[in-house]
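ingest -> fold -> write
write: protein_1
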Amino acid sequence: MPPAKKKARTYDAAKIRAAVIAQFGHVAVAVRGLDDERLARPSGVGAWSVAELAAHIAWIADSLAAGLARPPAAVPELSAVEWPFATASLAGKIAEAAKETLGGAPLSELYERAGTRMGEELAENPGNRVLDLWVGDMTLADFLVTRTVELVVHTDDLNRAAGLDIPIERQALAACTRLLADALALKAPGGSVEVRIPPFAVVQCIEGPRHTRGTPPNVVETDPLTWIRLATGRTDWASAVEDAQVRASGERADLSALLPVMS
């Protein structure tokens, strides 16, 4: 008999909404305090400056609001856990759309407009609303989980590039960590390696002998931010292991060939 299909993870929709709004608010406060020197620094995200990265984060909220303002799609085509694999081909299109939408307005204006629009549209739309998206039609509830990934990852980018200390909402960090961990398990299904990211996620992946009792023979353990950086290509496996940010034991406990999960 084939193994039972793993049940998809569920998220508390109200908490995810609150986390998305709060995280965007944290970034908005920090961006308003950036001086010209820090805005001109390289962001570490492609060729973007810190100013361009900050503008992109405003676009994340603005585009969510715009999606909710469009007529809904009929049925969802994509789940949250499938989203990381559908984004790579759209990077250039997203960058161009963001540039056109934002139009070079001052960052304070962009954040005020985007935050207001996002808040108003979220208040008017239920989680089962299906958004018509380039990446594939998704329910609002699922798409908001993916927004935690965008916001957490780029908050971390801003913190490192501009020397900031923008707080990361616990619910947003948890959802981001879990989604990327589940995406790894989807990318490399199996039960031979246990990946632990306390306190938020434990997944099994990679084909091979399945562990059932006692201490697993192949274990990878790391903290949420290190996992997120690995999963999105912000750091590499060898460096994380060498710096003791990742603890890997067992002959199969090498995830280098599977990382980044999303690029």
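write: protein_2
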Amino acid sequence: MVGRRVWVPSCAYDLARNLGVLRRGPGDPAFRVDADGAFWRASRTPHGPGTVRIARDGKGVEAQAWGPGAEWLLDHLPGLLGADDDPSAFTPRHRLVHEAHRRNPGLRLIRTGLVLESLIPSILEQKVTSDEAYRAWRLLLQRHGEPAPGPMERMRVMPDPRAWALIPSWEWHRAGVDGKRSATILRAVRVARRLEEAASMDLDAASQRLRLIPGIGPWTAAETLQRSNGTPDAITVGDLHLPRMVGYALTGERGTDDAAMLELLAPYAGQRHRAARLILLSGRAAMPRRAPRFAVRDFRAM
């Protein structure tokens, strides 16, 4: 163990719900949950790879870290846990949202401060099933990542930009990643340092920086910045299900599109991502899905 830090939240806090958005499927090699409820994350920080273990400790949250990136991870622990988030800036405008807000007082929007770490798996999730994307992330980290520092076995740190760039085409193919998504990742890692600067930008500037890369659109930028920047207004557009789920929850009607969703969320300007999270937590958003599901494709057979 290289270091330890304790952070004490000022009010109710839901560790599992807040950190859970960073997990890319049940077999994510960079994210693990112990039987005792402790969370493990393996990250590539500006100082190198690092592993952090995060668990409740009385009224606070204790973190232990290993590796060259340990000090960076501990320095950024409060932001990762949502200390920079300001839930008091949110005002519910619908009864359903008010009730979800009341029932989830510990919800915080986390901020990793690491752009590429969220960008690459978001690119892998473009227009495929979650299972396909999670499998690709898992295989790529297992084959091309490096062992995570610390005592947790079988965890992996994602490749550095150079290692991503050196992955041969047949390895992308084996992981089920088509040429369009792999090419987008390769374009991104070539300008990784410039993309990481987006972690300190406001939403508009950060989104614009990411979307300069061909293949990164509003959906991918929002999914990335929700995690890297903890931006409360980074609402996801271009999603297959979110507009219909938000529309059904707030109006009871089916078939809501992006434009209608944004109109419904207009009263939450500046807080639209938080509003959408609360709507999904309400339980009302779990409408029957009538849209066709993406079929799982096996690129290895092509």
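write: annotation protein_2
The first strand starts at residue 3 and ends at 7.
The two ends are 46 Å apart (CA to CA).
pipeline exit 0
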